[in-house]
Amino acid sequence: EVQLVESGGGLVQPGGSLRLSCAASGFTFDDYTMSWVRQAPGKGLEWVSTISWNSGRTYYAESMKGRFTISRDNAKKLLYLQMNSLRSEDTAVYYCAKVIDTGLYDYWGQGTQVTVSS
Questions:
Q1: What distance in Å separates the CA atoms of residue 104 and residue 117, rounded to the nearest whole number?
Q2: pLDDT tens for residues 18-36?
Q3: Are 79 and 30 in contact (CB under 8 A)?
Q4: What angle do CA 112, 101, 96 make, to 5 degrees?
Q5: DSSP letter string over 26-89?
Q6: With contact defined as beta carbons under 8 Å apart, do 94 and 49 qualify?
Q7: Integer angstrom CA distances of residue 97 from 35, 37, 85, 117, 118
Q8: Could you give the C-alpha distances from 42 to 48, 63, 81, in angstroms and in order?
Q9: Which of 19, 22, 18, 20 shows the shortest CA–CA distance to 5?
Q10: Segments in the chain below pLDDT 70
Q11: Spatial separation of the C-alpha atoms in residues 115 and 108, rounded to whole Å
Q12: Contact at 8 Å (CB) between 47 and 61?
């Protein structure tokens, strides 16, 4: 059974940092590209970042470039998202997702809430 379990969310002040983690199980983690997506209150899903199976390629949505860093540890089956210089508009539930094609995902985690507020 595929499982993706996010953690690391919380309340942070504007300008602060958080590191999200996603623990994967039930599939061969290092065979797959992985992504982070988010959903802000009252809005649709928004793609955040993607990392290739071997970390050789990373991609970011424009508003996250320079602030967020995606990484992975294939030995530990963990996906990470380091978020710096957080803004109120980054408030959302963040999900890790297993990629089956560009923009297509077959499994998601339960999400972790990130709230950026003073």
A1: 31
A2: 999 999 999 999 999 999 9
A3: no
A4: 10
A5: SS-GGGS-EEEEEE-TTS-EEEEEEE-TTSS-EEE-GGGTTTEEEEEETTTTEEEEEE-S--GG
A6: no
A7: 5, 7, 23, 26, 29
A8: 17, 19, 23
A9: 22
A10: none
A11: 20
A12: yes
